[in-house]
Amino acid sequence: MSLLKEFKVLAFLVVLVTGAVLVYAIGDFPDWGDPISPASEHVSSYYIENAIHDTAVPNIVTALLADYRGFDTMFETVVVFVAGIAVLFMLRRPKRESEVSMDVSGSPIVKTATRIMVPMMQLFALYIVAHGHHSPGGGFQGGVILGASLILMAIAFGLPSALKKISNKATVMLSALGVLIFSGIGILCMFLGGNFLDYSVLSAILPGTDRVMARSHAMLGVEIGVALTVMTAMFSIYADLASEGQLDQGL
Amino acid sequence: MMDIWVNLFLIGGLFFIFVGTLGVLRFPDIYCRAHALNKAMTLGISLLLISATLHIGVSDLWVKAFAIMIFQYSTIPLSGHVLALTAFRFSSK
Predict the structure, then answer these.
(1) Does residue A198 lie within any of the structural domains?
(2) A102 or A183, which is more confident?
(3) Which of B64, B68, B76, B82 to probe the A interface (max A CBs under 10 A)?
(4) Which of A2, A102, A188, B44 would be B17's cystine partner, CB 3.0–4.6 Å?
(5) Min Cα–Cα distance to chain B from A120, Å
(6) Domain, as residue range, for A75
């Protein structure tokens, strides 16, 4: 039995045991929609009653994700970032020896339609990111649409021409920058005397805001960071998968 | 009176979407299937949108529904074209 096979068996056992423990833990959950579960009794009603006064954000979901549970969302962003980096590390290989040229770029019709659609998609994605406080949307959703627009460009014009627009280096840097924006806003709050991700103290440096509006504005900053990370992680994963880690050809 | 039109457009849209999916299941090759899907879906989705906007009445949702229709008209034929073109390229190799 080779080392790799032993490693695979070990990994399978770890996954199996972890999964069994998780399934066992499901038994301790309260029933689905149980009205007397702790979550329904205490925090939910508090959020529904006070979110608009605390944060001036009409969309309670965004207020919850980006403010009350900002710590959770920050690490979700880190998970997306780590996923992009992990795919990069696993798939990236040195350049191929043989140059197999393969024309996989789309027809003129596809190229023309892409040229029209990509700006609209990106504008709509920016609207979703910026309007996430008031309507369904936010950083993750807008970031996915931005990433889809980049992937559409790569499909229609070929991966190399898309990588000319946004290089691989810039992709990874922007991905890290998104996480940096999120955690940087949190650390800025600590410097201003509040807790980590306690946005209300930001009113000291944001001109013309009180403690409530500061939370609303800080949420926008956080969403922009999330959108950057999600967009670049999507595109990076796609580029690595489509070109088998070579970044020279592929769809 | 409006309810009749709403139901008429709704039934029409559902009919065309049903016919489109039936075509995908029953037609023999990929060109026929792409044809059935694209033509019937375009018409079916626009009829459903008209029905929904009539049901809501006068509001700014009309603009959104119109925008959705424009995007459907531009992207569904495009996807059909790509599908047929790819199938043709692979079958001719």
Answers:
(1) yes
(2) A183
(3) B82
(4) B44
(5) 10
(6) 58-93+104-242
